[in-house]
Design goal:
CATH superfamily of the largest domain: Medium-chain alcohol dehydrogenases, catalytic domain
Largest sheet: 8 strands, mixed
Strand content: 15-25%
Shape: globular
Number of strands: 28
CATH topology of the largest domain: Quinone Oxidoreductase, Chain A, domain 1
Structural class: alpha/beta
Distance between the termini: 15 Å
Number of helices: 19
């Protein structure tokens, strides 16, 4: 290691008086930066309770594209006037502390490295890094109390000195991937939550039963009952008397539902429907579910009805749609509760050719419980070739059957043969299109799970048959982002040599290349992630063309094509000023 690189790693390099930052001044790409370039700003000095961090690496995310498109209308910016208070996006970062405020001396040191759990809460307010808080599309950033002493403690996760800058930054998207396999449906209505039981006209409500474990961990704090009767109501009242929770029988649904929709004063942790839902009802009820809310459909009679389901709510609010054909309510909660892949099952990754799709596929093939059969589809032939090239040998090594196909070539007969007529145990939606969810849903097998991972906009509805939810115990779940625990886990896997986040990198660039990199992300130009090095100045380079531009760096690529800490070190040696 040269003295130049060693000084950089230990943060012994001089701190500049100014730095470059890509500020977003409004919606649209024309408002990203000034005249297509970053702005030069005075370098901020940390206050007593702040840290000044150098941004060593930044992963570009499709979420950044959404911020640029929506500007102050983005949900996490809540109407912020970006013309007066611009934001710096970028949440997949690797940081090094270069200056410590006086009140933080002893707790933090110059040269310490961190990644950031971006979903920051401080005094109950969401101050997400790269959204409400200025993020990593800059050469330096200030880290205030929200980051190091927020509601969940510190959102700064320590990184070993031996970890590469890019591989550290990319643990954030990998943590999002990891979280999608750790979703668990509740075994009962939420303890101490608000539950609404709705009897639907035409159902023989006297035949419904509550079942066991409704009082799991003490039962709900309140149950509202609308147009239900018989043993279910008696059982709920029995539990209420025994445990002390409140029961309220309400006005008829036709009167109550419009009031709830208008006032928005109540959100439900669990909504339980007894009988066959009428058209449009489920779509309306999901708007009344709290985050991580469960909608349980108890429908013993067969139905081919299709209902609109807001996939955006499922994705962003972790909504669970569960059900049973049994007249016993609690049977809906006893189905397959985990979103983890199963060794005996078959998995389908829709939109697998993109950066996140490749991560999901890599994870599926490298984990201990690798599915026996995997179908990976996309519409881009170049991406499909990359998938075959990258993963065919690994699948063979793991004893898994991997089929990589153009999406248009998927037929019912093919899926029947591929899954031995059992259907898929797991379908992951990685492309934000409702039609794909509608088409794939019919191919789930017994107790199969459709996981809405793609960031579909709220209000994007798919017309789904409800019969599989009830008759086959299928579930619809969704996930977004990650937790501190997810990020710690992925970082530990990386630093333990069990995961290589860098293998997802398809292009690299310096601080001036961020705009071009985001354009490439928006257009799906690269079959993988774009890694930016904000302290360097060089144009965007696809790894496939690295040998032409930086041959000494290209020589360090893993297997001649994969980005890694060795290639990164060669890049820094050559490009650091």
């Amino acid at each position: 290691m040269s003295s130049k690189l060693e000084a950089y790693r230990k943060a012994h390099s001089p701190i500049p008086k100014e730095h470059l930052a890509w500020e977003l001044h409004g919606s649209g790409r024309e408002n990203f930066g000034r005249q297509g370039k970053p702005v030069s700003l005075p370098l901020p000095r940390p206050g007593p309770n702040e840290l000044l961090a150098r941004v060593d690496a930044l992963g570009l995310c499709f979420s950044d594209i959404k911020i640029i498109a929506l500007g102050g209308d983005h949900p996490r910016l809540a109407g912020r006037n970006l013309a007066e208070e611009p934001v710096v996006l970028g949440h997949e970062v690797s940081l090094t502390i270069v200056e410590v405020g006086e009140k933080l001396q002893g707790r933090f040191q110059v040269g310490q490295r961190f990644v950031v759990q971006a979903d920051v809460y401080y005094r109950g307010q969401n101050l997400s890094y790269g959204y409400a808080t200025r993020g990593g599309a800059a050469q330096y950033c200030l880290l205030g109390e929200a980051l190091h002493s927020g509601d969940a403690g510190s959102y700064l996760i320590p990184v070993l000195d031996s970890t590469g800058y890019s591989e550290a930054a990319l643990t954030e998207p990998w943590a999002c991937v990891e979280r999608s396999y750790h979703l668990r449906s509740r075994p009962a209505p939420k303890p101490h939550g608000l539950t609404w039981v709705v009897g639907l006209a035409g159902a023989d409500l006297g035949n419904y039963l509550l079942g066991e474990d409704f009082d799991y961990y003490g039962g709900p704090r309140r149950v509202m009952i609308t147009e239900a009767l018989g043993p279910v109501v008696s059982a709920i009242r029995h539990h209420a008397f025994r445990l002390g929770f409140e029961v309220e029988e309400t006005a008829p649904l036709a009167r109550l539902l419009p009031l709830l929709e208008e006032r928005r004063t109540l959100v439900f942790d669990d909504i339980i429907l007894l009988g066959k839902p009428r058209r449009g009802l489920i779509e309306r009820l999901t708007t009344l579910l709290a985050k991580k809310g469960h909608l349980a459909i108890i429908c013993p009679e067969p139905t081919e009805q299709r209902v609109p389901i807001d996939l955006g709510r499922v994705h962003y609010d972790f909504i669970h749609l569960i059900g049973t054909s049994s007249p016993v309510i609690m049977e809906a909660y006893r189905g397959r509760r985990s979103s983890a892949l199963t060794e005996a099952g078959a998995a389908w990754f829709i939109g697998a050719g993109g950066p996140m799709g490749q991560m999901h596929l890599q994870r599926a093939l490298e984990r201990e419980h690798c599915p026996r059969t995997i179908l990976a589809t996309d519409i881009d032939e170049a991406r499909l070739r990359v998938l075959k090239d990258r993963f065919s040998a690994l699948a063979e090594e793991r004893g898994a059957r991997l089929m990589v196909l153009q999406a248009a070539s998927v037929t019912r007969e093919l899926i029947r043969n591929l899954t031995d007529e059992e259907g898929f145990s797991h379908i992951l939606l990685l492309a934000p299109h409702a039609q794909l969810a509608e088409e794939a849903w019919q191919y789930l097998g017994e107790k199969g799970i459709l996981n809405v991972f793609a960031g579909v906009a709220r209000g994007t509805t798919a017309r789904m048959r409800i019969s599989p939810i009830c008759t086959r115990g299928c579930r619809i779940v969704g996930s977004t982002g990650s937790s501190i625990e997810d990020l710690r886990f992925v970082l530990a896997e990386t630093e333990g040599g069990h995961l290589s986040p860098d293998s997802a990198v398809a292009a690299i660039g310096g601080i001036l290349a961020i705009r071009d990199g985001l354009s490439g992300v928006a257009e799906g130009k690269f079959p993988g992630k774009v890694a930016i090095y904000p302290q360097l100045d060089f144009p965007l380079i696809p790894l496939a063309k690295l040998k032409e531009s930086l041959p000494a760096v290209a020589e360090r690529l893993g297997a001649g094509r994969f980005w890694n800490p060795q290639a990164e070190a060669a890049l820094l040696e050559q490009m650091l000023p």
